[in-house]
């Protein structure tokens, strides 16, 4: 019997069996890899380095909601590696992309341990496999606040402008009706002039506040003598103080300097003086003093007026807010003065503090970074003389009225 066909048959059977075994091994390896992929939480190459360099909060989350790795800013939202996502909406967002794709939602996050720390975020989840999802969280709280401020500013401005514009319109109609009565015409014309002045003041302060809040709203910064700032502010409000029978008193240290915009600082200090005079009783005193505290210059304006309640003190720096609305409107107040003071001080790297007690008066303090004095200029000497002259003139008039 010829052995050649048997050998060929054995060879064919061996090849078939070998191919079958190989196919089974390949299928087993693929199944194993698929199973590993479905259960693996191994991060893709480079993901950890990318997360470490991100400015936004971002993390990789497994199927059970546990954070595998997180970017440093994630800690501000209470998200840390090895912990479970606290926020139920974020967990739901991650589950929604488990089968693939991406999803984005705007969510308000309140940390359980800090109930007042509420943040509005834009969260985007993307699948990175059957077991892992990438969650990127962008904090939009500040953007929301700025948008709300713009909306409120436009609404408040429109409301405030309606009052003087409406008054001018009505008074113009009244003048037309009283054309044959010269006395009435003069009275209405005087009121129109007052409303126009109020409208001009309001418009000017709105423009000042808008400049302070814009990115390039200030002029070039340079060395500014606080003596000159105070002298100019006092000089600009001497007439108001005389009319209100309020004495202006200047004290404290001299020769201090800051880095900033002189005109903006003069306006800010002037607003504090105007408010102090406005809310002070006749015969009282408004003091403005300067103190150096290490590297900080403190400009304090103190009055003996009606004071501010605790509830009002928390809101007095808001735009258009008036602690005494009726009195402010009667005297032409715009509700923007203290807001301008706050923004002007902040733009100079400082802060504003307030102390007040109802019936005892108030003290507003602007704290600004101090710089070393440049070479002494004649202008600063003139400023000192101007301040002393204004203070002496006011004191003499006050003594004469008392006598």
Automatic annotation (TrEMBL):
Chain ranges passing through the membrane: none
Source species of the chain: Microbacterium pseudoresistens
Gene3D superfamilies, per the entry: 1.10.287.130, Histidine kinase-like ATPase, C-terminal domain
Top-level taxonomy: Bacteria, Bacillati, Actinomycetota, Actinomycetes, Micrococcales
Catalytic activity as recorded in UniProt: ATP + protein L-histidine = ADP + protein N-phospho-L-histidine
Composition-biased stretches (Basic residues): 394-403
Residue ranges of domain Histidine kinase in the record: 156-372
CDD domains referenced in this protein's UniProt entry, alphabetically: HATPase, HisKA
Protein name in UniProt: Sensor-like histidine kinase SenX3
EC number annotated for this UniProt entry: 2.7.13.3
One cellular-component annotation, GO: plasma membrane
Residue ranges of coiled coil: none
Highest taxon of the lineage: Bacteria
Pfam families the record matches: HATPase_c (PF02518), HisKA (PF00512)
Chief localisation class: membrane
């Amino acid at each position: 019997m010829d052995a050649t066909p048997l050998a060929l048959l054995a060879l064919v059977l061996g090849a078939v069996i070998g191919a079958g075994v190989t196919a089974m091994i390949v299928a087993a390896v693929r199944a194993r890899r698929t199973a590993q992929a479905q259960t693996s939480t191994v991060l893709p190459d480079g993901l950890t380095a990318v997360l470490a360099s991100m400015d936004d909060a971002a993390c990789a989350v497994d199927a059970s909601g546990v954070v595998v790795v997180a970017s440093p800013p994630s800690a501000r939202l209470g998200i840390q590696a090895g912990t479970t996502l606290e926020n139920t909406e974020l967990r739901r967002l991650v589950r929604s992309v488990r089968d693939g794709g991406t999803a984005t939602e705007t969510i308000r996050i309140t940390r359980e341990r800090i109930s007042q720390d509420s943040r509005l975020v834009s969260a985007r989840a993307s699948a990175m496999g059957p077991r892992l999802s990438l969650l990127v969280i962008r904090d939009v709280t500040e953007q929301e606040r700025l948008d709300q401020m713009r909306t409120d500013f436009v609404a408040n401005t429109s409301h405030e402008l309606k009052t003087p514009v409406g008054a001018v319109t009505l008074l113009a109609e009244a003048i037309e009706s009283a054309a044959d009565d010269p006395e009435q015409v003069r009275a209405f014309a005087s009121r129109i002039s007052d409303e126009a002045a109020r409208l001009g003041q309001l418009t000017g302060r709105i423009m000042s506040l808008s400049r302070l809040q814009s990115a390039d709203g200030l002029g070039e910064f340079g060395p500014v003598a606080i003596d000159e700032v105070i002298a100019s502010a006092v000089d600009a409000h001497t007439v108001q103080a005389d009319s209100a029978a309020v004495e202006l008193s200047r004290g404290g240290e001299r020769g201090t300097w800051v880095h900033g915009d002189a005109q903006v600082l003069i306006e800010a200090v002037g607003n504090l003086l105007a408010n102090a005079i406005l809310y002070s009783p006749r015969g009282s005193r408004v003091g403005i003093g300067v103190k150096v505290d290490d590297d900080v210059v403190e400009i304090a304006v103190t009055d003996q007026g009606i004071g501010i309640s605790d509830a009002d003190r928390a809101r007095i720096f808001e735009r258009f807010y008036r602690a005494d609305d009726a009195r402010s409107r009667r005297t032409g107040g715009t509700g923007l003065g203290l807001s301008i003071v706050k923004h002007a001080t902040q733009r100079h790297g400082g802060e504003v503090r307030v102390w007040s007690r109802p019936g005892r008066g108030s003290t507003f303090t602007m704290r600004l970074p101090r710089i070393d004095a440049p070479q002494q200029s004649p202008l600063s000497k003139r400023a000192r003389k101007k301040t002393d002259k204004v203070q002496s003139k006011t004191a003499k008039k006050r003594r004469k009225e008392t006598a």
